[in-house]
Design brief:
Helix content: under 10%
Largest sheet: 6 strands, antiparallel
Distance between the termini: 23 Å
Number of helices: 0
Shape: globular
Strand content: over 45%
Order of helices and strands: EEEEEEEEEE
Radius of gyration: 15 Å
């Protein structure tokens, strides 16, 4: 059996969620999207409280095959996410995109981390 999922003009290549180990844990997702998309890599998500930042803020830094996303003050009880998926790569006019959602039901509770990877279709 093969199941395909789509949202608008994007195919969902992978989507899932997991509970982080504890309330201070970070998340890491390693991926290999071959043969659908020729990209191998990993994304590390670091969650920190930063009193010098008002509201929440995302910062990204990457090198070949590795991306680190620093998530500052993502502690909204209802959850936080990127407003639009971010582009991870492009090949033959097709884009590979990524988005995530994080929620933490209380300061002492571990976070629930949900992610989705999309590929632009024709």
């Amino acid at each position: 059996m093969r199941l395909e999922k789509y949202t608008n003009e994007y195919q969902v290549l992978e989507s899932g969620s997991f509970i982080l180990y504890d309330n201070t844990a970070n998340a890491k997702v390693k991926f290999d999207f071959r043969p659908e998309f020729p990209l191998i890599g990993e994304i590390e998500y670091e969650f920190i409280k930063d009193p010098s930042v008002q509201g929440s803020k995302l910062e990204a830094d990457g090198t070949e095959g590795k991306l680190k996303i620093t998530c500052k003050n993502l502690d909204n009880l209802l959850g936080n996410c990127m407003l639009k998926p971010g582009i991870l790569g492009e090949r033959d006019g097709k884009k590979l995109l990524h988005n995530f959602f994080i929620t933490q039901p209380g300061e002492d509770a571990p976070r629930l981390f949900t992610y989705t990877f999309y590929m632009e279709v024709e």
